[in-house]
Specification:
The chain is an alpha/beta fold. It is built from 26 helices and 8 strands. It starts with a helix and ends in a 9-residue tail after the last helix.
């Protein structure tokens, strides 16, 4: 074998397009439904009839938990790469990919093997004549597993290429398999022929799962020896272990721990670390919330977001010790951050959360939000806090600040406020593309996204931009007044453009404005926590950031929209006035 081949024995890799996953997922779901229908019609006790099905589903849940949450998110030993430089999956897409890869796909493979050994799972229970699975059902699984690599080449649903890697320690598989086989013989007193059937069913799993991929060149090795070692270790070990566990629980007539297992999985998602071993966030409740933003009404989204922010930063127990962000002899200040829609509001909220949570501070956010006229108006928080998140037109935020300063904790202190601003022309251009792409549900409900595209297609870009400007007259006025009011209040201005051009330097300016102690260990910790929010990276096409829509259009299109906005004399005068009041240089058409 080539020098690189032995590595394949200890590392499993799999290269395939997402089309492959979609075909297999459809077939797997159909198979599970057919098996479930069979279970419901068997003339035996319900727990016996459903035993293989339930066991396979619990195995799938366990596989998802260990592979996705432990190996992929926490340890980083499971990796997903894109060898063709395709656009990476979003975190939600990645989760559902693993849901298929581990739960659905894994459950179907072991369900097939458990059906082969179904009569061995329950001892001293009479088996009904109709309990043997139909031969066609047993043939169907290997048929579609072998056909899927070929079928996936003939469709074009999603041709992104993935390279999935994980460690595969074959020596441990041998040890575990020997242990489980011994339990079958010594503890269960099974016949050698029955033990052999369990082992062969595990080999069959490998022939269903590994062999088709190997034959189609989708494995990371080409040595037949590597394939044989894999076939005789991995799935036989898994199948023997699952068989022993299933038979033991069946012998105890266990009520199963399915509900408890689901509680553990949910608790892990909620309380677990949302960073991988490399420190790069991959999946968390926050990330899932971010991904559903375009799909949910703004008022519903506000309720969900505030529930998460308030519970995690104010009430739920922490799983890490907060950083001491203030000097010992310093009274803790009340923090305020103000930002406007399409002016860095989302990333501002995310960074504020991370700063406040790292420092152990409670965040106050709006209880609800109106949705029209866009972006609506936010109400005040209904609870006390240490940090006010005044995003998207919380017009009476100063009233809430006065209420908090009357508390004993903050009496005699001044609020430390920052306001995030963006060049008015850039902000309006960004909103045009954001609206045109329908990145909020409201835009799609009223058809504003389609309207802008249709006017451009059938008339001109100028007409499309004019329609856009007329629709957003209220936003142009109130959005600017909101930011200007914060500057007049005394909030320290931080320009979104500075976060893009020099992220760390601008964050240090933010820390200074909030009187975070100037100690290297504290500030370096905060910089590390905030690193993944860098807008210079998150605005790239490969970032999957659905708030950044400008990259979807050519440089010429972006330039044309900007100059079209400036060609409206009245609008240009208004925006230039806004630039002066927000300390920006006036627009230069050249």
């Amino acid at each position: 074998a080539a020098p690189s081949e032995p590595v394949a024995i200890y590392n499993e890799s799999r290269r395939f397009q997402l089309d492959f996953a979609l075909i297999d997922c459809i077939c797997s779901v159909i198979f599970c439904l057919l098996v479930a229908r069979r279970c419901s019609t068997l003339s035996c006790e319900s727990w016996v009839a459903w035993l293989p099905f339930r066991s396979s589903m619990y195995f799938g849940a366990f596989a998802l938990f260990s592979d996705y949450f432990v190996y992929y998110l926490l340890q980083g030993s499971r990796t997903v790469d894109y060898p063709n430089d395709d656009i990476p999956m979003t975190s939600v897409e990645t989760f559902f990919f693993f849901f298929w890869f581990d739960w659905i796909n894994g459950a179907v493979i072991v369900l097939w093997a458990l059906l082969v050994c179904e009569d061995l799972l329950v001892d001293h229970v009479s088996q009904p004549k109709d309990k043997s699975p139909p031969i066609l059902m047993l043939i169907a699984v290997p048929m579609w597993f072998w056909a899927t690599p070929w079928l996936s080449r003939g469709i074009d649903w999603d041709n992104r290429m993935l390279l999935v890697n994980r460690p595969s320690e074959k020596k441990k598989y041998w040890i575990l398999m020997a242990l489980f086989l011994s339990i079958m013989v010594v503890y269960f007193r099974m016949k050698i022929s029955d033990v052999l059937r369990v082992f062969i069913s595990g080999v069959g799993c490998g022939l269903i799962h590994h062999a088709p991929l190997f034959a189609s060149g989708m494995r990371g090795y080409s040595s037949p020896i590597s394939l044989i070692v894999t076939l005789l270790t991995e799935w036989p070990s898994i199948m023997c272990g699952l068989f022993v566990l299933t038979r033991f629980l069946a012998s105890q007539k266990s009520k199963w721990v399915g509900r408890s297992l689901m509680v553990v999985l949910v608790a892990t998602i909620l309380a677990g670390n949302d960073q991988s071993a490399s420190g790069k966030p991959r999946f968390s409740v926050r990330q899932a919330y971010y991904e559903i933003m375009p799909m949910v009404n703004a008022d519903t989204l506000q309720t969900l977001g505030t529930a998460y922010v308030s519970s995690t930063s104010c009430w739920l127990p922490r799983f890490s010790t907060p950083v001491s962000c203030f000097e010992e002899d310093q009274m803790e200040p009340f923090w305020v951050v103000v930002a406007g829609a399409k002016g860095g509001a989302v990333v501002t909220a995310q960074m504020t959360y991370d700063i406040a949570y790292t420092c152990g501070r409670c965040i106050g956010a709006a209880v609800n939000r109106t949705i029209t006229p866009w972006p609506g108006f936010e109400s005040l928080p209904s609870y006390d806090s240490d940090v006010l998140l005044a995003i998207a037109n919380m017009t009476s935020w100063k009233t809430y600040v006065e209420q908090q300063l009357s508390r004993t904790k903050y009496k005699g202190t001044k609020p430390l406020c920052i306001v995030i601003t963006r060049d008015p022309f850039e902000r309006l251009r960004s909103l045009y593309f954001y609206t045109r792409e329908g990145r909020e549900r409201l835009f799609r409900i009223i058809g504003l996204d389609k309207k802008l595209k249709e006017i451009h297609q059938h008339d001109s870009l100028q007409a499309s931009v004019k329609y856009f400007v007329d629709y957003y007259q209220h936003f142009i006025t109130t959005g600017h007044q909101y930011l200007r009011s914060a500057i007049q209040f005394g909030c320290h201005q931080i320009k979104f453009e500075d976060l893009v051009s020099n992220f760390n330097k601008t964050l240090l300016e933010w820390f200074d404005a909030w009187n975070i102690k100037n100690i290297s260990s504290v500030r370096q910790k905060l910089l590390a926590v905030l690193a993944h929010h860098n807008p210079a990276v998150n605005m790239l096409p490969s970032s999957g950031n659905h708030h950044a829509t400008g990259h979807l259009y050519s440089p010429k299109m972006r330039s044309d929209v900007l100059h079209t906005l400036a060609s409206n004399a009245s609008l240009k005068d208004t925006l230039k006035s806004h630039q002066r009041e927000l300390n920006y240089p006036e627009f230069d058409a050249n």
